[in-house]
Amino acid sequence: MTVRKFRPPNRLANMIKERGGILAKDAIVAAEAGVETLREASLAALDQTVAEIERRFGKAAENRESESFEALYLLSSRIIDVGQFVSETGVDKAAVSLCTLADSLAEAGVWRWDAVDVHLNALRLLRAMGAELPAEQRSAMLEGLYQVSHHKADEA
Amino acid sequence: MADPLLPSTRINLEKATVLVLDDNGASLDILSQVVSGFGVKQLFRAESVMDAQALIRTKTFDLIISDVQMPVTDGIEFIEWLRREGGENNRYVPVILVTGHTRTSQIFKLRDAGSNYVVAKPITPKVLLERIVWVAREERQFIECDSYIGPDRRFKHEGPPPGSDGRRKDDLPAEVGEAQAPNMSDDEIANMMRPAKVQV
To answer: How far apart, in whole angstroms, are the C-alpha atoms of residue A130 and residue A123?
Structure first.
């Protein structure tokens, strides 16, 4: 096998050190301020995603057996995308756990609806009052979710 | 290894042309706001790999930031395409992948996609700026072979993986081995560290 090793020109390297520009601390402040303007829209998007998961994968969903693991995975990852706005509630971590669960279900090829339901219940609860929960309770709840999502059938 | 980013470090991204790719509009907005906050003026947004590929065929980018989890074609396949078929102007561009979760089946694929760095979502401006500066300053070689195109995946100089002799001519054994000379004295070590005036 032929392996070629070389150093291609890195235009970014030259640009970033050109005269002018801004201090890193100011760049971070400006970026944080820009992100903050998206808080409301991002939370609305998050709530829509949670509602869609509930509608398609919740207990009341008419035909949830026919849904794909992939769809649940992608929807859960959309919650993580805007997770910086709900980090104090634990919703972002619950969504990570739901992604792990969807990935694990896809590998097994079998739904574990009790595991999905407990994640949806937790998402709803954390979104509503996660920030007000005592930190230990929130951690215990998330730890429970991790155990559910990391559970393998052959470990039972 | 590049120096850490200090708050007082001056960065200039005004002339950089940056592509951000994410299928989730809310996430794309966040990425765009962060990158704009860093002073980037030429920012291009794409909501699908197909849109990104169309942009790559017509523009030259200095940095690409892409999501991993996307329907139809994901970020891993996109980077693999970029490194092989992205054209001479864009094939070697620094790429930062962002992902909220990595599927078990994709851990190695993500490592072997050819990106310069992977950043966890939700992104924070501080972490993303640190990584941008890191990829701008890094001096890793590019590797091009049948199975991989991208920056050298070994960049910590930790020697070959345990239990293997390494595949490269310059690989040193992981084990240090027996000492070949007596221990240095404290004075000898101190002398090596001592600042000295040099004539240049």
So the answer is: 9
**pLDDT tens per residue, range B144-198:** 999 999 999 886 666 666 777 777 766 666 666 777 788 888 888 877 777 777 6
Residue A75 near residue A52, CB atoms below 8 Å: yes
**By three-state DSSP, how is residue B71 classified?**
coil
User: Which CA distances in Å does B142 have to B92, B135, B153?
Assistant: 8, 13, 9
Reported ipTM: the value is 0.90
Q: Is A108 on the interface with B (CB under 8 A)?
A: no
Residue B19 pairs in a beta bridge with B44, B64
Contact of A90 with A141, CB cutoff 8 Å: yes
Query: How is residue B45 written in tokens?
Result: 């947004």
CB pair distance less than 8 Å for B145 and A1:
yes
Distance from CA of B117 to the nearest CA of A (A): 15
Angle of CA points B21, B26, B31, to nearest 5°: 50
Cα separation, A77 vs A92, in Å, equals 9
pTM above 0.80, yes or no: yes
Pairing between β-strand B117-120 and β-strand B42-46 as defined by DSSP bridges: unpaired
Interface of A with B in 3-22 (CB under 8 A): 3-13, 15-22
Chain Cα centroid distance, residue A132: 21
For residues A44 and A78, the answer to whether their CB atoms sit within 8 Å is no
